[in-house]
Design goal:
- By secondary structure, this protein is of the alpha/beta class.
- It has 14 helices and 20 strands.
- It has helices at about 20-30, 65, 100-105, 125-130, 130-135, 155-165, 175-185, 225-230, 245-260, 265-270, 285-300, 320-345, 410-420, 425-435; strands spanning about 50, 55-60, 75-85, 95, 115, 120-125, 140-145, 200, 220, 305-310, 350-355, 375-380, 385-390, 410, 460-465, 470-480, 485-490, 495-505, 510-515, 525-530.
- A hairpin with a 4-residue loop joins strand 5 (about 115) and strand 6.
Length: about 525
C-alpha cells in the first residue's frame, strides 16, 4: 500500500489536501477498498474451556468474569466516532487567539457566536449550543489536543491506530476493546453468551472490537434491522410462506439465519422492557442510532460497550457549508440521548465519549476547508464529568506546513477509562493496552474500584486455547511486583496434581502454555492456582 499521508521536512503532506489530485483520491480509495467483515453474532463466551473432553476452571470466582456482569458492575461506555477527522478548533474554539483568526479568515467562529466556557474556550452557539446546559450542569468534559507520537495522516492508517492503540509504526490486528473483552471472557469461543458484550449500531464492524480469535461485537446494520429483531424476535419473517419447494427452501434459510442470530431474544426483551423517548430531533441519523442504544440501556440488556458513528468530517473544501450541520447533528443527538437516559435514571452509570482519527490543520486552505492535522479534543458526557482538561493546541511559532504537537496520548485516555470507569484492575489494563500508559488523574470524577476478587499483588487473567496449537492451553497472568511465583494444577477436591513452575519472575504480564498430553493428564475437570 502506498504511503500518501506523511509529512516530510517542510513540504506539504502529499495526499492530505484536495489540491494533490490523484494522491488525495488514492488515499480515499484505499479507505474505500478496505474490506470489513460484518458480523451478526458472537462466537462464544464464558469462563471455562475444554481440556481433552473436559474443562479447566479458575480456582476461584474470577474478578474478570464478574467485570462484564451488569449485576456487579452496571457501568456502560457509549463511543461516538466522528469519522473523517474532526476540526477540533471549530468544535471547541480558542477564544481571542490571533493566529486562529488570522489563518481562518472565512472559517473562524466569532466571539459573538460563542458561549464562553472559560476565558480561553468557547462553544459555538449555532452548532454546539445544545450542549451548553450540559456543560453548565457539570455533565460535559473536554480533553484537549489528544493524539499520538509520529502521527500518520492517512484516514485508513490513523483509524487503525486509534482502534488498536498501537504505535504509529506498529501493525496490530486486535482492537483495544476486543482485547478487553477477550481478557474478561477468555473462553469466548466455547460458551455462547446470552447478551453481546459490545454492540455497534449502523456502522461496519470496526477493528476496535477485533479479539485474538473472534470479533467481540454484534453489528446491527441499521434501524430497520434493529426494529425487526426487537419487535418480532427474529431478523427475517417466516410468516406467509407456502409449502411449495421455493418457499420451503426460503423458510429454511430464514429460520437458519434467525437461529444463528443468538441475541434476538435478549434484544427483544430489553426493547420491550423500555419505552421510547419523545425528545429526539427530527431527521437526524445519529439521534436515531443513539435512541436505539438508549432503549437497550434502559431495558437492561447488559451490554457494556456501544459504538455509533457520524460520518462527513473530512472537510477539505467549503467547510462552512456542511461542518456546522454535522456539529449540530452531533450536539442535538447527544443532548437528546443524555436527556433520555436522565429521565429514566441511567446517566449515573453511562459514560459517553467521542473520538476521531485525527484533527484538522489550523490553517484554512485555498478551497475554504481544512486538511488532515494532528490532535483534536475528546468530549465526555456523564454525571459529574464537567470541566476542561489540558489546553488548546499551541498555534504560535509554527512554520508554513507545521502542525501543532499533541499534548495528551489517546492511549492514556483509554487506559484511564478502562481502570476508572469500567473497573478493570490496573494490571489487567496494562495487559490489555500492551504497555503501562500514564493514567489521567481526575478524568473520571467518580472512579470505581477494581472488581471484587482482584488481588493486590497478582491476577490470573484467564485461559484459552493456544491459537497456534489448539491442543495446548494458554494460562495468562500478571504480577505487579517482582518475586517468586508458583503456578499449580489441582484436582476438583483441591489436591495438587502438577506444579507447572515455581520460580522468580520480574514484574509484568505472562502467558504459560501447556499440553495435557505432555503433562500426562487424563481428560477431566481441573482447577489452577497461582501463588506469589
Amino acid at each position: 500500500m502506498c504511503d500518501h499521508g506523511k509529512k516530510k521536512n517542510k513540504e506539504k503532506r502529499i495526499g492530505s489536501a484536495l489540491e494533490h489530485g490523484s494522491a488525495h483520491t488514492d488515499e480515499h480509495n484505499s479507505w474505500n477498498r478496505r474490506k470489513f467483515l460484518t458480523t451478526s453474532g458472537l462466537a462464544g463466551l464464558g469462563m471455562s474451556m475444554m481440556l481433552g473432553n473436559s474443562t479447566v476452571k479458575a480456582f476461584s470466582p474470577s474478578d474478570l468474569g464478574m467485570g462484564l456482569s451488569h449485576v456487579s458492575n452496571d457501568r456502560v461506555l457509549v463511543l461516538i466516532r466522528l469519522k473523517g477527522g474532526v476540526d477540533g478548533l471549530n468544535t471547541i474554539v480558542p477564544r481571542f487567539n490571533s493566529v486562529y483568526y488570522n489563518e481562518r479568515p472565512t472559517l473562524a467562529v466569532q466571539e459573538a457566536n460563542m458561549f464562553a466556557m472559560d476565558s480561553a474556550n468557547g462553544l459555538p452557539l449555532d452548532t454546539m449550543g445544545s450542549l451548553q446546559s450540559l456543560y453548565q450542569n457539570n455533565e460535559m468534559k473536554v480533553v484537549h489536543n489528544v493524539g499520538y507520537p509520529n502521527p500518520d495522516y492517512s484516514h485508513f492508517r490513523s483509524s487503525d491506530i486509534w482502534a488498536t492503540a498501537s504505535d504509529s509504526d506498529e501493525i496490530v490486528t486486535t482492537g483495544w476493546i476486543g482485547r478487553y473483552v477477550d481478557n474478561l471472557m477468555p473462553a469466548y469461543i466455547d460458551a455462547p453468551p446470552t447478551v453481546p458484550p459490545a454492540l455497534q449500531i449502523g456502522v461496519q464492524t470496526n477493528l476496535l472490537f477485533n479479539g485474538p480469535s473472534a470479533k467481540m461485537a454484534l453489528t446491527i446494520d441499521n434501524a430497520e434491522q434493529f426494529y425487526q429483531i426487537a419487535q418480532n424476535g427474529s431478523l427475517y419473517s417466516t410468516a406467509g410462506l407456502t409449502d411449495c419447494p421455493k418457499d420451503l427452501e426460503l423458510g429454511f434459510m430464514r429460520q437458519t439465519a434467525n437461529n444463528a442470530f443468538r441475541y434476538s431474544e435478549s434484544i427483544q426483551d430489553a426493547y420491550q422492557n423500555s419505552t421510547a423517548f419523545s425528545g429526539y430531533p427530527g431527521y437526524n441519523p445519529l439521534a436515531e442510532r443513539l435512541s436505539i442504544v438508549a432503549r437497550l440501556i434502559k431495558g437492561r440488556l447488559g451490554t457494556k460497550i456501544y459504538l455509533v458513528e457520524i460520518d462527513g468530517f473530512d472537510t477539505h473544501a467549503e467547510q462552512a457549508g456542511y461542518m456546522p450541520g454535522l456539529l449540530q447533528e452531533l450536539s442535538t443527538a447527544t443532548k437528546a440521548f443524555y436527556d433520555d437516559l436522565s429521565a429514566a435514571g441511567f446517566t449515573e452509570n453511562t459514560l459517553i465519549m467521542t473520538f476521531s482519527e485525527f484533527g484538522r490543520t489550523y490553517k484554512e486552505n485555498d478551497s475554504l476547508g481544512t486538511d488532515h492535522g494532528t490532535g483534536a479534543p475528546i468530549l465526555f458526557f456523564g454525571q459529574d464529568m464537567g470541566g476542561i482538561v489540558g489546553s488548546q493546541p499551541n498555534l504560535f511559532g509554527l512554520g508554513e506546513y507545521d502542525d501543532p504537537t499533541y499534548d495528551i496520548d489517546f492511549r492514556g485516555v483509554y487506559a484511564t477509562v478502562l481502570q476508572d470507569w469500567l473497573c478493570v484492575d490496573p494490571n489487567v489494563v496494562n495487559y490489555t493496552m500492551g504497555a503501562d500508559f500514564m493514567r489521567m488523574s481526575g478524568l473520571i470524577s467518580n472512579p470505581c474500584s477494581p472488581a471484587l476478587g482482584a488481588n493486590n499483588v497478582a491476577a490470573l487473567l484467564g485461559h484459552n486455547p493456544n491459537r497456534a496449537n489448539p491442543t495446548m492451553v494458554d494460562i495468562k497472568y500478571g504480577i505487579k511486583q517482582r518475586g517468586n511465583v508458583r503456578l499449580q494444577l489441582l484436582s476438583e477436591s483441591g489436591q495438587v496434581l502438577r506444579t507447572f513452575f515455581n520460580e522468580f519472575k520480574e514484574r509484568g504480564s505472562y502467558t504459560f502454555s501447556f499440553s495435557r498430553v505432555a503433562y500426562n493428564l487424563q481428560a477431566g475437570d481441573y482447577m489452577y492456582r497461582m501463588d506469589t
